[in-house]
Each structure stands twice: as structure tokens, then as C-alpha cells.
Design a protein that fits this description.
Elements lengths: L2 H12 L3 E5 L17 H12 L5 E4 L1 H5 L4 H14 L6 E6 L3 H14 L4 E4 L9 H4 L5 E7 L6 H4 L12 H10 L8 E5 L4 H10 L5 E3 L9 H8 L6 E5 L1 H4 L7 H19 L2
Parallel strand pairs: 1-2, 1-8, 3-4, 4-5, 5-6, 6-7, 7-8
Helix pairs in contact: 2-4, 2-12, 8-9, 9-10, 10-12
């Protein structure tokens, strides 16, 4: 099954647009295991098991693992998700952006070592930094387009004088992902929930590609505005929430609290589709 098919199947089966981001920070773990990086897998696996029937995808952020020398725990977590939530696609949030043999190695890391269904990429170095990922049949790649951080304006909101119509850089990335770069139908775009007008603009320029939308929850993005701007019945969106779900409770009931918050957010997103 190709990534896009798996994504649509998860949306139907779980009735969800919600992606749970797995950003394990041991300093925020429940008091019994707080500060213990050896418990990263245990913490994340509990979150996965509690929410697997409520989500369209899981998105582990690789830096939270590698910073604690926990890549082996990430491998174990990816295997856990394949066994216990095989219908839910996994997006490795790595934001890679290199070329040539280095890009090929990063692609192998994402898809062969970790077995991810999709990966996030920076398109700044051009198509040859993206193409090695597209050789992996059935896999997906999400290009940073209009990110939720204020500093995104520094580049993404600059106009390109050498291109007809002088589009913003993020608009140009959206057109490339919808058109000439999307040779196998594998590309998606990352658009922050804090910019609903830009989500709507990206959707107009890229009407069929999936949108990965971080920034709902702790970052303050409006879930309803996000859905209205980006969701179309034939074009999936993946609305990510990480901290608001994973750290919904500081106690031993963290997994139950995560499920409650995930269900609340899932239902809010579904209501906005009506």
C-alpha cells in the first residue's frame, strides 16, 4: 500500500485528521520516571497504545531520540507501531535537506533503518535533495512550505523576482510539490496551523497533495480554522498535536489523559469538517 492510500485508509477507519507527535522529553515524564531517558520507548509506546484508534498518523521527532542516544529506542518504537497499529502511517520528522549520496543515506535511515512510511524534508537545496526519497516506492515525503514559527517569514514570505507573478517562496514550493516535483504522487507539504490564510492559499495552489499541519495545541493554532482552510474531501490533512497530548497529565495516568485529549482534539477536527 502506498503512503497516500494508507493515510486515507487510516482517516476512514479512525474517523480522524489528528496526528499525535511523539516528542519525548524526559524532563516532562511522570515523576516516577522523570529524567530517565532509558524510559523513552516505554513512555511513547504507552501513548501509541492509548491513541492508536484515534489518529490518522504518528509523527516521532527524531531529535528527541538522538539527543538522548535513544536511536535504538526509536527503532523499537517504530517496530511497536508496525505491530500494534499497522493501519496507522508513521511520519519520521527529520527535516533532512542534503544532496547526492548523503541524501541517499538519509533516505535509507528513514525508510530502511526506521521503516517510516514518510519523512519531512527541507527543499532549500532543490529537487536533487528530494529525489532520492522518491525512489522508495510507496513512501511519502513532506516538504517544508509555510512553517508555524515567526522566523519562517525570513525566507518563506519573500517574493521571487525572477519568476512570473513574483510569488512568495512558499507559494513556489507549493506549486512544485503539486506539479513537476511530484513525479510519483508521493509529496506532501508542511504548513503551520498558526497561519490559516496561508494554509488556504497553499491548498489552492496544491489542491490534491496531503498537508501536514503542526501547531495545534501547545503552539496555539486554531483547530477549526485549520480544517476549514485545508481539508477537502479528496485532499487529506494531517493535523499534528504533540505536547498537549503527550503531556496532558504529569502523573502516572498520562496515557489515559493523552487518550482523553486526543479524543477531544479528534472530535473537534471532525466537527469542523461539517
Amino acid at each position: 500500500m502506498i503512503f497516500l492510500d494508507k493515510l486515507r485508509a487510516a482517516e476512514r477507519q479512525n474517523g480522524s485528521l489528528l496526528c499525535v507527535g511523539l516528542d519525548p522529553d524526559p524532563t516532562k515524564f511522570p515523576s516516577r520516571i522523570r529524567g530517565d531517558a532509558s524510559k523513552i520507548y516505554d513512555f511513547c509506546a504507552r501513548i501509541v497504545d492509548a491513541t492508536a484508534d484515534l489518529v490518522i498518523a504518528f509523527k516521532p521527532q527524531i531529535a528527541y531520540f538522538s539527543a538522548h542516544r535513544a536511536e535504538d529506542q526509536l527503532e523499537k518504537l517504530m517496530e511497536h507501531m508496525r505491530r500494534h497499529a499497522p493501519h496507522v502511517p508513521t511520519i519520521l520528522d527529520a527535516k533532512r535537506g542534503d544532496i547526492g549520496s548523503t541524501a541517499e543515506q538519509y533516505a535509507s535511515e528513514a525508510f530502511e533503518r526506521y521503516g517510516a512510511d514518510a519523512v519531512t524534508l527541507s527543499p532549500f537545496m532543490g529537487f536533487d535533495s528530494v529525489e532520492p526519497y522518491l525512489r522508495r516506492e510507496g513512501k511519502g515525503a513532506f516538504l517544508l512550505c509555510r512553517t508555524s514559527n515567526p522566523g519562517g517569514d525570513d525566507l518563506q514570505a519573500q517574493r521571487l523576482a525572477g519568476i512570473e507573478g513574483q510569488p512568495f517562496l512558499y507559494e513556489h514550493v507549493a506549486r512544485l510539490a503539486q506539479g513537476p516535483w511530484n513525479i510519483g504522487g508521493q509529496l506532501g507539504l508542511v504548513v503551520g496551523a498558526t497561519y490559516p490564510a496561508e494554509i488556504e492559499r497553499v491548498r489552492a495552489l496544491a489542491p490534491t497533495v496531503p498537508l501536514l499541519i503542526p501547531g495545534v495545541g501547545a503552539q496555539g493554532g486554531d483547530a477549526s480554522a485549520t480544517v476549514r482552510a485545508g481539508w477537502r474531501s479528496d485532499a487529506p490533512i494531517i493535523v499534528n498535536s504533540s505536547r498537549a497530548i503527550c503531556y496532558a497529565s504529569p502523573g502516572d495516568d498520562f496515557a489515559d489523559a493523552a487518550r482523553t485529549e486526543a479524543a477531544r482534539t479528534r472530535d473537534l477536527l471532525e466537527f469542523a469538517k461539517q
